[in-house]
Amino acid sequence: MNNLQPGRAPVYEMLEQYRLKGNISYHVPGHKNGEAYRNTGGAGYLADVMRYDATEITGTDDLHHPEGVIQEAQELAADCFGAEESFFLVGGSTAGNFALILTVCYEPGMLLILQRNVHKSVIHGLMLAGAHAVFLEPQMDPGSGLAVAPAAETVQAALAAYPQAAAVLVTMPNYYGMGSDLAPLAQACHDSGIPLLVDEAHGAHYGQHPALPAGALACGADGVVQSTHKMLTALTMGAMLHVQGPWLDRALLRQRLAMVQSSSPSYPVMASLDLARRLLHSQRAGAFTAGLAAVDVLRRGLASLPRFQLLQPAGPLQRTCGDADAAEADTPPQRGAAYRTQDPFKAVIYDAAGVLGGFELQRRLEERGIVPEMSDDRHVVLAFSLGSKAEDAAVLLEALRDIAAQTACGVPQTEVTEAACYSGAKYAAGSGSALDEAAGAGLVAASSPIAESQSDRSSMTILASASYNIGEEVMSAFSSPNSTWNNFSASLISAPVRFSTKPVAAEETESITLEASAGRVAAEMVIPYPPGIPLLYPGEIITESICGRLGSLRDGGAKFQACADPALQHIKVYNIQKGGEV
């Protein structure tokens, strides 16, 4: 990486020269720089893109065997993000997750330890690898009821119980921008001689400004996937995979990347990755000035609009990896320990009066031209970035003021009662006794166990004495049981779960109403999207609680993927003749 020039964007600059030369194309793509549309009214706004839509010819390099501008661009990316080696991804973080899993689980039956609430791309990677998964329960933030990541002691216990594990994989930050310290997890993995893999899809900007949490690489992670298109400035599908340390077979990783990515990668997407890196590399912390100013407008405005609150950890924001956090790794998690960092660009708001749920608040914002990233039953996630503007934040505030005025307690409105206003105000004031009782309480809410586990279930009770479970009455006061992110099971550490690409046989299943599914075994995945976290896997028991939760999500307006009925009026289960009832 000698003589690197951060102000250059090699792939972007190459494509500009490609366009200016205007050479006659006798190669793919067939649109011939957009000329194929010249007699049909043109290609509209796509015409400009087509002029830069190159392929692997002399001078453009090859993503799967880079020797020129792509190699230089990836070396610049590694320098910018603090990696030893970086790879461009044109299939989003999904491609990176696939490649990492197929690298560490290089033959069927290998075991991966990972948190339960992972993105569907991780589950699909497990299927492709034929891997066995040991799921860890993430810690829950008591204040919001949202899951973050597994505790260090849970990871350590899982590694002790399954020394054959090939790697540990966690997601950080979560969709809400919440995080905890990764350094103890990395240390636990390295002490066991395996890599820590991090799906950092929503944290490509981490570590680039003092107001931002530290990135996974700085915390010791070995393989890190980032969606550069999400919180930085690349085109959609543009992502990167960063690696460091001795724990990953990089030759095998390159082969896996070539296997899961297109042999005809998009040059405009790669150029956008190059440009996004150049913007950050050249301006560094200054690149975030305007975006953070927009966030500050919202924060200041909400200070005078207490009806809507921002999700944030109880303690000081943005601790450094390790240090005091690492020293606390051997102690049971205390209140707030699950949630130590918050991405300032993920402004997660909620109605502190308890009048409007997240889905309804999102609907009302969209009616006013404000389009959030996502919502759950309680929260709305507003994604700011480098491109956000203070004047837009002012428009958002005005919309919130208008919504607050139209839904004030005591004003007639649909499905809102004075009781809801009273209980919500009591919650916002912190006077709820259940919330006080929950201080220092624990990790998880019970949901459904994994049904396809191996016969040895002794590991299901590992750390039972340290599970810090909280009663339903206490949890109901502050948790988000209908969050599309949370995905809890009944124990901290599951038994190994087999994954494969073998489809479920149609004759073994039937479709029944969701309300009638409690006690049956799911025959399909159910994935609320966003954020894409599977709430049910094939072979998993549908308990009363998960059935009710899915119904609440459906009725609240959540969207579903992977299931035969995306409206979730019906669900596929194993039929009784095949033992589908428990």
Summarize the structure.
With 582 residues, the chain is an alpha+beta fold. The protein contains 18 helices and 18 strands.
Walk me through this protein's architecture.
- There is one protein chain.
- By secondary structure, the chain is α+β, with helices and mostly antiparallel strands.
- Helix 4 (92-104) runs parallel beside helix 5 (120-129).
- The longest helix is centred in the middle third of the chain and has 17 residues, at 267-283.
- The chain is built from 18 helices and 18 strands.
- The N and C termini lie far apart (59 Å).
- It is globular and about 65 Å long.
- Helix 5 links the parallel strand 2 (111-115) and strand 3 (132-136).
- Pfam families: OKR_DC_1, OKR_DC_1_C.
- One of its GO terms (molecular function) is transaminase activity.
- It comes from Paenibacillus phytohabitans.
- Residues 503-544 form the Orn/Lys/Arg decarboxylase C-terminal domain.
- Residues 10-391 form the Orn/Lys/Arg decarboxylases family 1 pyridoxal-P attachment site domain.
